[in-house]
UniProtKB/TrEMBL annotation:
It holds the Pfam family Radical_SAM. Residues 13-220 form the Radical SAM core domain. This is Anaerobic ribonucleoside-triphosphate reductase activating protein. Gene3D superfamilies: Aldolase class I. PROSITE patterns: RADICAL_SAM. One of its GO terms (molecular function) is catalytic activity. Keywords: Iron, Iron-sulfur, Metal-binding, S-adenosyl-L-methionine. It comes from Thermoanaerobacter wiegelii Rt8.B1.
């Protein structure tokens, strides 16, 4: 269910001014999760009604809605929620961990999403660090294929934390998902709210490590972005 929303974001939806909606509930346990309070399903601090009232009022400013979490594809109300956004003619970006390929397929077929950003947490062999249920690995592989074979805009992205992943891990990850149009390396930044300080560390990841990965993966993707 909806937990809250950020009224305006210039960075969550590439090329668009967006409102970002947070959905609670997640089936992963990423040690660096910044939104760990959204892993359990929680009573929202703002409702769907609050969100649509806001969206209608700011239609002159907002171009799109970014739906993030938690893991939005676990929420049964997602499709209807998106339909209501689309009825108001906003673009929709969905952030996902890729564990519900059928939901992604359904949304893509229904032309309900314009952009998908899927997290690739690790090469397949290391996904266990992030999953609560190992069965999700198959689902994640299916989601990668569904997104790559779709006509919509997308990115794959990885949070880069050198305590969890090595340069060789990124090479293995790239061998798995490439070719793909866009791959983003997102720098791990320490925050008080992260799920597991011991595993993630309390230092931001060294930016030079991201640069080294980008150099190593050169040519494997249409473009490689570094997000600091
Ligand atoms: S970072 Fe991991 S645990 Fe946190 S919301 Fe995303 S997928 Fe879930």
């Amino acid at each position: 269910m909806i937990y809250d929303f950020m009224p305006v974001s210039f960075i969550d939806f590439p090329g668009k001014i967006a409102a970002t909606v947070f959905i609670s509930g997640c089936n992963f346990k990423c040690p660096y999760c910044h939104n760990s309070y959204l892993i359990p399903i929680r009573e929202g601090i703002r409702s769907e009604k609050d969100f649509f009232n806001y969206l209608k009022k700011r239609a002159n400013l907002i171009e799109g809605v970014c739906i993030t979490g938690g893991e939005p594809t676990l929420w049964r109300g997602l499709k209807n929620f998106i339909k209501n956004i689309k009825d108001l003619h906003f673009s929709v970006k969905l952030d996902t961990n890729g564990s519900r390929p059928q939901v992604l397929e359904d949304l893509i077929k229904g032309e309900l999403v314009d952009y998908i950003a899927m997290d690739i947490k690790a090469p397949i062999e290391k996904y266990g660090i992030f999953l609560k249920n190992k069965k999700d690995i198959d689902n994640i592989q299916k989601s990668v294929e569904i997104i790559k074979n779709s006509h919509i805009d997308y990115e794959f992205r990885t949070t880069v934390n050198d305590k969890l992943l090595t340069l060789e891990d990124f090479e293995a990850l790239a061998d798995w998902i490439s070719p793909a149009k866009r791959y983003a390396l997102q720098r791990y930044k320490y925050a008080e709210s992260i799920l597991d300080k011991e595993k993630s560390g309390i230092q931001d990841c060294d930016i030079n490590f991201l640069k080294k990965i980008k150099e190593k993966l050169n040519g494997k993707f249409g473009e490689i972005l570094i997000r600091e």
